[in-house]
Amino acid sequence: MTTSVSSAVRALSHQEPVQLQRAVRALIGWMRATDAKASLAGPGSQPTAEHEAIVQRACAAVIARPVGLDQTDVLSEMANDSADHIQKLKENPASAIYFNEGWRVAIADLTRVCAIQPHVSTDDALQRAEGVTRDDIRAVAQVTLPVDSSTPIAAAFNEDKKAWVFSSANPNLRVFGQAQGQLPVAPIFGFAVGVSLSFMQVASFNGRLLLRDGYHRAYGLLRRGITRAPVFVREFERFEDMRLPSGMLPQDAYLGLRPPMLADYLNDDVSAEGAALVTQKVVIIQALEVATLG
User: Fold this and answer.
1) What would the pLDDT profile of 129-150 be if each residue is shown by its tens digit?
2) Closest-CA residue to 209 (of 254, 245, 252, 241)
3) Residue 75 and residue 180 share a domain
4) Which of 69, 211, 288, 293 is most buried (most C-beta within 10 Å)?
5) pTM, two decimal places
6) Which residues is 184 bridged to in the sheet?
């Protein structure tokens, strides 16, 4: 018999299931109609005629746009005074792998990069860009291409189950590796758990620049009027090599004739406020004592 992750977490933390919602900004003009209306209505609610009318107006606004896309000069080179930050990225194991895979660092005009993610969580996005100003590109780089992480994680210990339960809204929560130590009474064996660094990434495919990762930070920066940001950039010849996550917009939306841009999250003609279920990444580390015969 298998047990779902959510039920396992409830059993270990003694918590009843609670469906929390978060405010999002959704690109309803490019989403499938059923998904767009569901986003406007929110989880557990039925879309209304008003929601359908909003979606229809957004789709009409997209169709009314001129055909084609000009992304000339969207990318520019980093200034010389940012060389030390790039060097730190090359020395950090979490980001060094990107350079080894062919990524490079450049400044991107976020307003003209294509969006592939249907919605962003607005509250979380604003927190990630808090305190950053448009004139301090080095501070922006600390948000989009961080070299260190101090993200706190929530941990709870269940004495009965002898288990640690870690949870975070950040999907980069993970087990980094095993750890050992020594106490006066006995040695310690366990695991290192934390939130891994993530970087804003722009993928170039078939002549089109797409944001591959970093949506909440991009939205937060744009809301603060910050349009230029350091990003990782890489060209891809095959679509499958981009390894885009599931649940994105339809492919013909962002590779079509009138693709959504990151700035469109702020455009009331083609996007709108909605709601989605809060998702949590969970890591469970449990100690089991087993007696065997023979």
Assistant:
1) 777 888 888 899 999 999 886 6
2) 254
3) no
4) 211
5) 0.81
6) none
